[in-house]
Amino acid sequence: MINYIHNENTKSKDLTLQILTLKATKAKKICVLGLGYIGLPTASIFATHGFNVVGVDINGNVVSKLKKGEPHVDEPGLKTMVEAAMKSGNLIVQDQPGKADAYIIAVPTPITIDKKANLSFVKAAAESIVPVLGKGNLVILESTCPPGTTENFLIPILAGSGLAIGEDLYVAHCPERVLPGKILKELVENDRVIGGINPESAAKAKELYGAFVEGEIFLTDATTAEMVKLMENTYRDVNVALANELSTLCERLNIDAWEVIELANRHPRVKLHKPGPGVGGHCLPVDPWFIVEKFPEEAQLIRLSREINDAQPKHVFKAIEEATRGLKEPKVTVLGVTYKGNVDDTRESPARELIHLLRERDYAVAAYDPHVSTFEVKLDGLEEAFRSSDCAVVMADHDEFKYLDLDKLGKLMRTKQVLDTRNILDLKRWQEAGFRAKLLGRGK
Ligand code: SAJ
User: In angstroms, what is the span from residue 254 Cα to ligand 1's centroid?
Assistant: First the structure.
C-alpha cells in the first residue's frame, strides 16, 4: 500500500511532492458530473474562483431549472452563488459532459434494499466521460464509496479511454465532508483529505482544490481516503447508537439521560452524542453499510449500531402508544419530517418511519414542517395538524418549534400531550400550559 501522508504545515515536507505540486499545471476547465447537494456548490465555487465549469446532470429538470438560475437544492447562500457563477459565464449547465482538464464525479451512491452500495451512478458518470478524456486529464471521485472503489471499480472503467492510468490520466478520491446547512462555509474552511492512485494524481488534485480550500489539505492513497470518509460518519453513527442505548437504559432507570450526558461530558476525554428519534440523511444511515458490505464478519459493532439507530423510530412509536393507550382512534401530530433541524432534507428521516408505523396501527397522523412543502404524506398547516390531536411529537429540532403558541394550540387538541425526541422544548412551559410533557431519554 502506498503511504504518503502529507500536510502542508508539516515542517519536514516531502520534497518529491513539493516538486510534483510545482510541476502540476492548473486545470482551467472543469466538468462536474452530478449537480446535487455537493456537485452544485462545488461547481459554483470553482466558477466563482475563475475556472470555466461545465456542470452536468442527467436530470433534465435540474438542468432547465438551473438555466433559469433556480437551484433545486435549498442551502443557505447557494442561490446567490449559483446566480453569480452563471452570470459571470463561468458556469454553464448541460446534460452531457464535454472536454475538460479535470472531471469531478459527485453523483449519489445510495444503498440497495439489501444494504449494498449502488455504484450505478458512478459507473454511468465514469462511462460518460471515457470518450472525451484526453492526455493529462484528472478524474476525481467525490462520491462516498466502499473502500477500494477508486482502484478496483473506477480505474477499470477509465482504462477504456486507452490512456495510461497514473501517467496520462490522473485519478484521485476527494471525499466531501460538509454539513448540510453549512455547505458553502465548510467547503472552503474544512480540512480535506485527498487520496491519489499515485502521488502525481494526489498532487494534481490538491492543486485543483487548493484554488478555494482554506483548510489544510492532506494527501494519502485512494483507499485510505475512502476509509477516512466512511469512518468519520461511522464514528458518528456508532456514537449516536451509544447515546440511543443510554437513553433507553435511563428511561428504565427512571433517570435523565440528558443529565447523564451533560455530566459525563465534563470529563475531558468523553464526548457522548445526543439520543434522538433515529439517524437520517444521506450519509450516516448509508456509509457504515459500505464497510459492513466489505467485511460482513468483522464489522460487528458498526452493523449493530446501524440496527440500534434504525430501531429508534419504533422506540418513539412505543412511547406514543403508551401515551395514547385507551384513547379512541388516537391522532398524532408529527412536528418535523426532515432528518434533522433547520434543513429541508427529508432523506431517510426518522419521521418517515414513525409515520409508517403509526399508520400501520391505524393511528390518524397529521404532519407539519415549516421547512418542507411536499412530502410523501400530506403536510398540514400548524393549526390543522394540532386539531383534535392526542399527542404532538417533535421529530426534527427546527427552531420554530421552540416558540409555538401553546395556549392556542392546546385549545385545538383533544388530549394535551407532547413528546420531545430532540430535547429542544422548554417542557416546563408546556406543562404550565396544561400539557403532559415527556422527553425521550428521561424516566417518569
Ligand atoms: N444525530 C443524532 N445525535 C447526534 C448527532 C446526530 O441523533 O448526536 C442524528 C441527526 O439528527 C441526523 C443524523 O444523526 O438524523 C445525521 O446528522 P449529522 O448532523 O450528524 O450529519 P449529516 O448527515 O447532516 O452530515 C454528515 C457529516 N459528518 C460528520 O459530521 C462526521 C458531514 O460532515 C458529512 O459531510 C456528511 O455527513 C456527508 O455528506 O457524509
Answer: 29
The response to whether residue 240 sits with its C-beta less than 6 Å from ligand 1 reads: yes
Q: How far apart are CA 18 and CA 14, in angstroms?
A: 6
- Rounded distance from Cα 309 to ligand 1 centre (Å): 13
Q: Which of 335, 330, 292, 322 shows the shortest CA–CA distance to 310?
A: 292
CB contact set of 63 (below 8 Å; sequence gap of 6+): 35, 57, 93, 94, 95
| Tens digit of each residue's pLDDT (9 = 90 or more) over 138-189 | 999 999 999 999 999 999 999 999 999 999 999 999 999 999 889 999 999 9
Nearest to 109, CA basis, from 96, 130, 123, 99: 123
383 vs 426: CA distance, rounded Å: 20
The per-residue pLDDT for range 250-286, each reduced to its tens digit, is: 999 999 999 999 999 999 999 999 999 999 999 999 9
Q: What span, in angstroms and rounded, lies between the C-alpha atoms of 345 and 329?
A: 31
Of the residues 206, 229, 331, 416, only one is catalytic, namely 229
Euclidean distance between CA atoms 173 and 150, whole angstroms: 7
Residue 283 known to be catalytic: yes
Q: Residue 241 is placed in which grid cell? A: 447508537
